Amino acid sequence: MEDLDIATLQKRLVDFAAARDWERFHTPKNLAMALMVEASELAEIFQWLTPEQSADVMSDPEKAFRVRDEVADVLAYLLQLASACEVDVLAALADKIERNELRFPMGREERKARG
Amino acid sequence: MEDLDIATLQKRLVDFAAARDWERFHTPKNLAMALMVEASELAEIFQWLTPEQSADVMSDPEKAFRVRDEVADVLAYLLQLASACEVDVLAALADKIERNELRFPMGREERKARG
Amino acid sequence: MEDLDIATLQKRLVDFAAARDWERFHTPKNLAMALMVEASELAEIFQWLTPEQSADVMSDPEKAFRVRDEVADVLAYLLQLASACEVDVLAALADKIERNELRFPMGREERKARG
Amino acid sequence: MEDLDIATLQKRLVDFAAARDWERFHTPKNLAMALMVEASELAEIFQWLTPEQSADVMSDPEKAFRVRDEVADVLAYLLQLASACEVDVLAALADKIERNELRFPMGREERKARG
Description:
With 115 residues, chain A is mainly α. Helix content of chain A is 71%, strand content 0%. Chain A has one domain (6-87): Orthogonal Bundle (Helix Hairpins), CATH 1.10.287. Chain A contains six helices and no strands. The first copy, chain A, is globular. At the A-B interface, helix 1, helix 2, helix 3, helix 4 and helix 5 of A face helix 1, helix 2, helix 3, helix 4 and helix 5 of B.
């Protein structure tokens, strides 16, 4: 399905907002704020759960729907913010993973254990 | 560059955590909390800026680096949470866009204006 | 009205939770998470507003009710977290103000301008 | 100590910002955003802790300092936002507790158990 490509979805989100004349609301500041609010709605699902209940969250269909829905909302605002700031999200993430590999090198024993 | 595919990056993140024995920390609850903390660090960059300054944030190299870095951190925790909950982020987003298109239909005049 | 004392309100909140057997949910971690979620619901009221609209938020009765309600929720979780961690919120704030006065001293001209 | 009164501390915070000419930054929107960022810094202390470790957080002097410091920051922004919106925080909280007592009444058995 050709839609399931991140660049295509990102373009659909930007076009969707433009078609509704929402661009004037979509400053980087407002999008960052909306992203934080959505991340918080995702966290709310988990706030009173034990670690064990949280690991099992997707076995409850209503909670599973909410998790999936809020994950989509977070990604939607992240991609809109990235468009507004002209950040390539996949390149930014690849760079970050490389920085983290230097920052948290695996110990010798861990490497040995993994061959 | 073969790394710049979302599924490949998601797998690298999961392997990175597993190699460091961080899986026991990575319950969905903790990952949702970490995601919210990172979204908040991204918002912090913008908190005292005017709308105009926020639109121009990427012209400051130090702020531009931070935006890119925090966007990567948000995406990293979102993908790790999605892995832990077995959510396909791109399918979830495509579904959400479709629900939003039904929820916020374009008015007749907007359609006309856009041909 | 004797209720309008912070220590009395804090005790009422703790008793309220204990009476409903909610203490097992009220770990410092969960209360910190709930506090963040409530702070986010407060921020949500402002997310698409211009600075000018935000300054005028209380002139809209429905928004004014929400602001007041979410301010109360944030304070409620903050006081419950403080009880769980045995933090005296007013002493902590007084100490912080003193540290900030050392960290951000007023310039000579500002002092002069203010006599 | 006369400083340890919420109204006095609130006035000191407002005067502190005014003396530094920070009022132009302190729109309700920006203060709500800063409040959320501080709530998130408080939550960050707990993000990888187990429920048991979180209950014991104050036994670690460095973490105890951070908890106390971030609790103060959250309260500081909450009081500044309340000043900007002319919300009486203690009255708002008392009202909310009353609404919650109607919304979550104690069951007959709970009342009996408590005499």
